[in-house]
Specification:
Blueprint lengths: L3 E8 L13 E7 L7 E9 L3 E9 L7 E12 L8 E13 L3 E15 L7 H5 L2 H11 L7 H9 L13 E16 L4 E24 L8 E2 L5 E2 L1 E24 L4 E23 L13 E20 L3 E19 L5 E22 L2 E12 L3 H5 L10 E14 L2 E22 L5 E21 L5 E15 L15
Antiparallel strand pairs: 1-2, 3-4, 4-5, 5-6, 6-7, 7-8, 8-9, 9-12, 10-11, 12-13, 13-14, 14-15, 15-16, 16-17, 17-18, 18-19, 19-20, 20-21
């Protein structure tokens, strides 16, 4: 956050100039603006639970009115409220640029590393409420499953509301991600300008966890006879699950002004992603035969390639009426193969071509009043987790969204009113089920028909040059119109006690 200038959150289908990923909403993050003069900043924060935050940044300012270099280093450390829920985060930012009146060339390098103890499992409701009778009932109901060891039992009853299910000292998520960006913009003439972005993102890290007396066949290891002659089929295991990914792409945009009333924008993007998922055993309570730390008990690879192109136009008639149209096409290929962490073989070959049109009209009722209407279509493919965490082993469907907007704007001197009514109809939207997979990631399922209907209003009155009153109102109705839920594994004892 130390290098962020502003963040904007927008509901609805975004325009193609913002990228192909906008579906139902968008978050735009702008890095820091150009600072003309040289600078050096340092800031720090101390807080509860041994929380520390430090950020150091410096920059040259504009050198010879053309060149600049900025840099920042930040760290955040905290013990956290949850037991053992510590976090250790560090990041850096480097940017060098050459800027003229007609062009800009900038190199950005951003990297962040996080080492966080796992605390996502949750706290029993009876413990939060302080109900000891219900807590005992919860304990005996789950004894031997959730609570397998004496340490688990001691942990449950000795801790307070900050209880954390995990007790293994290195139950951590350790991940690093680095971004390289090269951005170029050029004003060719008074009518034409271009923007080009080349980027590469590298991510690598692991989730480490302890497993009490886990079955060896979960790791593709056959039972064996140890030196004492005992049959070994289970062992205490410490394992790591790795993610090693590379993401790269090229994006180019052209903005051309044909006349004062007509402009066109066009662009394309070519993106590629490769991700390896694998796991290894780093420690065992048994001497596993012919097993090394480097052995991967599972490994799968995912590859995704995408090509996107769009053409957008704005046309104004008599300064009162304006139209805009946006035609976008996306072609993507998604392949996953190999062995998943539960030793299932994965085979996903997903190919789609999406057409996403957007149209709108604006009409000036008066110099200070405007009405507008827009209709947009967006489609989005499922993610890797929607394939691998699918309970029923069925292929998830892509999401389809139709977005209608009708708005009114009034602006006069000290009064501003912006009002908007929207209707968003989803087909096969992927929604959270409330379930988590075995590493805490949410599980999603397609819902056949769902809609969102709402009204948004923003009003501002300037009382003086220094005082203004602002009021925001949002009313929404969010409904699942049709959905038959199937519970894959659900058991309830209705017998009388």
């Amino acid at each position: 956050m130390g290098s962020v200038n502003n963040i904007q959150i927008q509901r609805g289908v975004g325009v193609s100039t913002n990228g192909a990923g906008a579906f139902g909403g968008m978050v735009s993050i702008n890095t820091a603006d150009i600072r003309v003069n040289s600078f050096a900043d340092i800031s720090g924060t101390l807080g509860a639970f041994n929380t520390k935050k430090l950020s150091i940044s410096a920059g040259t300012g504009l050198i010879n009115d053309r060149y600049l270099v900025d840099a920042r280093y930040s760290l955040i450390k905290s013990d956290g409220y949850i037991d053992r829920g510590a976090a250790d985060l560090a990041s850096y930012y480097f940017s060098a640029a050459r800027v003229t009146g007609k062009s800009s060339l900038r190199l950005n390098i951003m990297s962040g590393k996080e080492l966080t103890y796992q605390a996502w499992y949750g706290v029993p409701e009876s413990k939060v409420a302080g109900d000891q009778t219900a807590l005992l009932n919860h304990y005996y109901t789950n004894l031997g499953t959730l609570y397998e060891t004496q340490a688990d039992s001691v942990n449950l009853f000795s801790s307070g509301r900050s209880y954390n299910y995990y007790t293994y000292p290195n139950q951590v998520d350790n991940y690093t991600q680095t971004h390289f960006q090269l951005l170029h913009s050029l004003i060719h003439t008074s009518r034409m300008k271009t923007k080009t972005t080349l980027f590469y993102t590298k991510g690598k890290g692991y989730y480490e966890e302890f497993r009490f007396q886990d079955a060896l066949n979960n790791y593709g290891i056959q039972h064996f006879i140890n030196n004492s002659g005992a049959l070994i089929s289970r062992s205490d295991i410490v394992r790591r699950r790795w993610l090693d990914n590379d993401f790269a792409g090229l994006m180019a945009d052209l903005d051309y002004k044909i006349s004062d009333d007509l402009t066109i924008q066009s662009g394309l993007a070519v993106l590629t992603y490769v991700g390896d998922h694998y796991g290894n055993i780093i420690k065992s309570s048994e001497d596993l035969p012919q097993w090394e730390k480097e052995n991967k008990y599972y490994k799968s690879n995912g590859q995704k390639s995408e090509f996107t192109a769009y053409l957008r136009s704005n046309y104004t008639v008599a300064k009162k009426l304006s139209f805009h149209g946006d035609l976008q096409i996306r072609k993507l290929n998604y392949e996953v193969g190999g062995k998943d962490n539960d030793l299932r073989m994965l085979q996903v070959d997903y190919n789609k071509v999406f057409f996403n049109p957007k149209f709108g009209v604006n009409y000036n009722l008066h110099p200070d009043q405007q009405v507008y209407f827009s209709y947009a279509v967006a489609n989005k493919e499922p993610s890797r987790g929607d394939f691998t965490d699918n309970v029923f082993n069925t292929q998830p469907q892509h999401e389809h969204l139709q977005n209608l907007e009708l708005g009114y704007k009034y602006s006069r001197q000290k009064v501003l009113v912006e009002s908007n009514v929207y209707y968003m109809k989803y087909k096969n939207q992927l929604v959270l089920t409330g379930a988590l997979n075995d590493v805490g990631a949410p599980v999603r399922v397609n819902v056949p028909v769902r809609y969102r209907l709402g009204w948004e209003n923003n009003s501002t009155i300037s009382i003086s040059n220094t005082i203004a009153l602002n009021a925001n109102t949002t009313i929404s109705l969010n409904k699942i119109q049709a959905f038959d839920e199937i519970i894959a594994d659900y058991t309830v004892d209705f017998s009388k006690k």
